[in-house]
Amino acid sequence: MSGDCCRLPPVQAEYTAKGTYTTIGDLKTYAVGPEDAKIAVVIVYDIFGFSPQATQGADLLASQGYRVLLPDFLLGKYADGAMFAPGGEEKRAKFFSAFPGAISTQYEPLAKFVQSIREPGTFEKVAAVGCCWGYKVVAGSNKNAGVDAIIGTSPSFAAPEDAENINVPLLLLPSGGEDMEVMSAIIKSVDQKNPGKNFLKHYSDMPHGWMAARGDLSGGKATDAYADGYNVVAKFIKDTF
Predict the structure, then answer these.
(1) Domain residues for 45?
(2) Would residue 200 count as lying in a domain?
(3) Domain holding 51: CATH number?
(4) What is the pLDDT of residues 44-53, one digit of tens each?
(5) How many domains, the chain?
(6) Is position 113 within any domain?
(7) Going by C-beta distance under 8 Å and a sequence separation of 6 or more, which residues neighbour residue 143?
(8) Per-residue pLDDT tens for 76-104?
(9) What pTM does this model have?
């Protein structure tokens, strides 16, 4: 699947987000795109929260006419780069010992959030994008929280049995850090339910999280891959709906 038909704005290293912060279903939410859009895209960010890469990615998708919503499921308690630098082991261990986003605790918040945006009757379709740990939240959330399509980028904690809960079109964009046998098994199983509507694109030379907070937007191959990833997501949503 190519993203050539979608024309997203150029990715920028120095970037000012175009959206605004509001409250939806008791959650602080970054919102961007036309309010009268018929398609909503809900993004479950990675453990670094409202990173510049996450908000720019939301803006890129919103440029295609979608209403894009980035809820604060971690309630302001994010990881930071220092945790993963030399000497950050203690800080990292402390963060994960009390991680506010344990996957099983996020199923209900995601389902409630999706329900809250559907209630006004505005959106005809809702797609959910899960970045890293967010993939597992989306894949396992109450039969996908009633969403109409799922996208997983750098899918963390993926397992073949994830397919049991996925009954809608699925796009997986694994990095070089994911198990491709697992990725292929998930796609194969889901494709038996929705033949021809599921896609897998492997970014084998990209690090885990390249479309989220670990994305390098300073130029070069990594920036091109970030842009291509969002282009593929945009085309998947367009083709699916």
Answers:
(1) 20-240
(2) yes
(3) 3.40.50.1820
(4) 999 899 999 9
(5) 1
(6) yes
(7) 165, 167
(8) 888 877 777 788 788 777 777 766 657 88
(9) 0.92
